[in-house]
Design brief:
- The chain is of the alpha+beta class.
- The chain has a single domain, classed as 2-Layer Sandwich (HIT family, subunit A), CATH 3.30.428.
- Helices cover about 15% and strands about 20% of the residues.
- It has 1 helix and 5 strands, in the order βββαββ.
- It has one helix at about 50-70; strands at about 15, 20-25, 35, 75-80, 95-100.
- A 5-stranded antiparallel sheet has the order 1-2-3-5-4, covered by helices on one side.
- Strand 1 and strand 2 (about 20-25) form a beta hairpin.
- The longest helix has 21 residues, at about 50-70.
- It is globular.
Length: about 120
């Protein structure tokens, strides 16, 4: 059983047909949201077409939720698929991470920083 299956209803900030949202317990930045599958699915590639459609809509909803309380300057949207990609909880979840000017010295390269020396090009 996944740790995400133990999240209490009062922690859920939005629920869809196939997913729910919570604020990340270990946020990268203020407002960081996780979109988690209701059913225990391994990763993005395990999702059905219907789930992928809803996920896309929920990313937009997560953005609106974040922007009710915060004013981010950008976003990183990420899904780790497999151990080699850094996935530590083997239950699908998508990170919606608000980014703020100055939150790191040089953000150029964005997600490319997940592999050493690939962020700057």
């Amino acid at each position: 059983m996944s740790i995400f299956s133990e999240i209490s209803e009062d922690k859920k900030i939005h629920k869809g047909e196939y997913f729910f949202m919570v604020y990340d317990g270990f946020p990268v930045s203020p407002g960081h949201i996780l979109i988690i599958s209701n059913e225990e699915k391994l990763d993005y590639f395990s999702l059905s077409k219907k789930e992928k459609v809803e996920l896309s809509n929920l990313i937009e909803i997560a953005k609106r939720i974040i922007e009710k309380e915060r004013n981010p300057d950008g976003y990183n949207i990420g899904m780790n698929c497999g151990e080699a990609a850094g996935q530590t909880v083997m239950h699908f979840h998508c990170h919606v991470i608000p980014r703020y000017l100055g939150d790191m010295e040089n953000p150029r390269g964005g997600i490319r920083h997940c592999v050493k020396n690939k962020g700057y090009y």
